[in-house]
């Protein structure tokens, strides 16, 4: 063999404490591939962390929204129950009468406000009670054009109700 600067056995020339990067540089001259893979792995790890943080943040926002909606649902259920109870209370007859008097100013008619129509009578006698004196006065009221007081007029529920008042 000829004497040269190169060692005869390549394995004997490489020291045992070299790392993989130096081997790649010496043998394949692929430093750029090694660095590219490491950069790609670093970017993937950072991207994975960012996506995980975004997912957790979205979960917390959705959970808070859900809790707010549940609270609103409970409040609406309580309001609905209260309105049902109020509806049942106001549908009672005494409650309707008291609200009619208080809110609408309605009142039960007195004898002075009632008019009794009898069939066959052309005029109706209405007693007028004067609060200043003890005597009863009667006013003559002419029949109205819309009221049929002829003896042949049919008797309906309206005429019976008017006669009963």
UniProtKB/TrEMBL annotation:
InterPro entries: Cell_div_FtsL (IPR011922). One of its GO terms (biological process) is cell division. The chain crosses the membrane at residues 31-50. This is Cell division protein FtsL. Residues 129-165 are annotated as: Disordered. Keywords: Cell cycle, Cell division, Cell membrane, Membrane, Transmembrane, Transmembrane helix. GO terms for cellular component: plasma membrane. It is a single-pass type II membrane protein. Pfam families: FtsL (PF04999). It comes from the Bacteria. It is found in: Cell membrane. Its main location: membrane.
């Amino acid at each position: 063999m000829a004497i040269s600067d190169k060692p005869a056995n390549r394995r004997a020339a490489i020291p045992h404490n070299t790392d993989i990067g130096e081997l790649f540089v010496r043998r394949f001259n692929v430093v750029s591939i090694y660095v590219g893979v490491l950069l790609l792995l670093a970017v993937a790890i950072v991207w994975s962390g960012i996506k995980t943080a975004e997912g957790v943040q979205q979960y917390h926002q959705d959970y808070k929204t859900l809790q707010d909606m549940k609270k609103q649902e409970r409040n609406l259920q309580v309001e609905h129950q209260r309105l049902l109870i109020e509806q049942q209370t106001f549908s009672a007859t005494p409650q309707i009468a008291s609200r009619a008097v208080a809110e609408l100013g309605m009142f039960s008619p007195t004898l002075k406000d009632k008019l009794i129509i009898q069939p066959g009578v052309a005029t109706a006698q209405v007693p007028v009670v004067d609060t200043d004196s003890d005597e009863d006065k009667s006013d003559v009221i002419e029949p109205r054009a819309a009221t049929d007081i002829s003896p042949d007029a049919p008797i309906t529920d309206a005429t019976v109700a008017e006669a009963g008042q």
